[in-house]
Automatic annotation (TrEMBL):
Adenine glycosylase active on G-A mispairs. MutY also corrects error-prone DNA synthesis past GO lesions which are due to the oxidatively damaged form of guanine: 7,8-dihydro-8-oxoguanine (8-oxo-dGTP). Keywords: 4Fe-4S, DNA damage, DNA repair, Glycosidase, Hydrolase, Iron, Iron-sulfur, Metal-binding. Its cofactor is [4Fe-4S] cluster. This is Adenine DNA glycosylase. It comes from Flavobacterium qiangtangense. SMART domains: ENDO3c (SM00478). Belongs to the Nth/MutY family. Transmembrane segments: none annotated. It catalyses: Hydrolyzes free adenine bases from 7,8-dihydro-8-oxoguanine:adenine mismatched double-stranded DNA, leaving an apurinic site. PANTHER family: ADENINE DNA GLYCOSYLASE. The keyword Metal-binding applies. CDD domains: ENDO3c, NUDIX_DNA_Glycosylase_C-MutY.
Amino acid sequence: MNFSKTLIKWYLQNKRDLPWRNTTDPYQIWLSEIMLQQTRVAQGLPYFLSFTSSFPTVFDLAKADEEQVLKLWQGLGYYSRARNLHGTAKHIASELNGIFPDNYNDLLKLKGVGEYTAAAIASFSHNEVVPVVDGNVFRVLSRYFDIETDIASSRAKKEFTALAKELIPKDNPAIFNQAIMEFGALQCVPKNPNCEICVLNSGCLALKYNKVNELPVKLKKTKVRNRYFNYIIFSDENQDLIIRKRIEKGIWHNLYEFPLIETESEVDFKTISKLILEEYSGKNMILSIKPLNKSKILHKLSHQHLFVDFYKVEVQGVLEGAISYESMISYPFPIVIYNFIEKDLL
């Protein structure tokens, strides 16, 4: 069986019709690749359409305000991607006259563009013979060739990239890269793939040795930290609210949130009420404190699990710096806060 030809034939018959596949414009391909890192296509597609509508060119994105970019990105997570995207757009617009580098090595010099993204842009825009190696590619190759190298190890990337270089057809690298990624996304899926209908099943060593669900090997487990966020929603006599920008390093940098009391562990209502009174007994007298969510909200990030509670605190008089609900919802928030605002705040 010719692995590459079979894969490409499958792709041409089964590929999804996605907007970034109908262009060689490096701007659109770059946008899609940055958005689809750690994001499923179904989730990323509406964001791609929204971005290309709001910012048709790299110059439009470069001119945008960061808060506008973060607001459009709201819900995609990994917000450093959006900040890097914006910064790189400014660099391309001002330093490169809006023209993206046309080769893999120069693309790698752009902030936020790693080996995978550089390879994708170089092959899809310029048909450069450079393999794209992502999670889907790891899975397909490890199963088909029975490779037990831990994909979290430092040597895995080199090993799989070298193998992909041997397989990639020199006359059609872009289609091959699209094909192997699509095959991993639709056919050779992480759990319980339907191997009976797989066009590669006759040569797949994982299927032959009954190891499909054992590959790829990933031994390194991400250490998860638990954090406890107690958000305080102050409301004054005008029903105006207080929000703050997260300027500290770490999660949600430059997004907005309500005043926060972070605790070392879960606390009961009596304890959080005492902490609120201690920390916020300032100019405005606190009239009442009440919990707003019936059960604790669990929000999972890649390295952190956040346990989130919201408390409404009504105060006497008018709060300095408070804004209306209508004004507030135009700001970019972490999705766990935005969902709460939309569903439960009013």
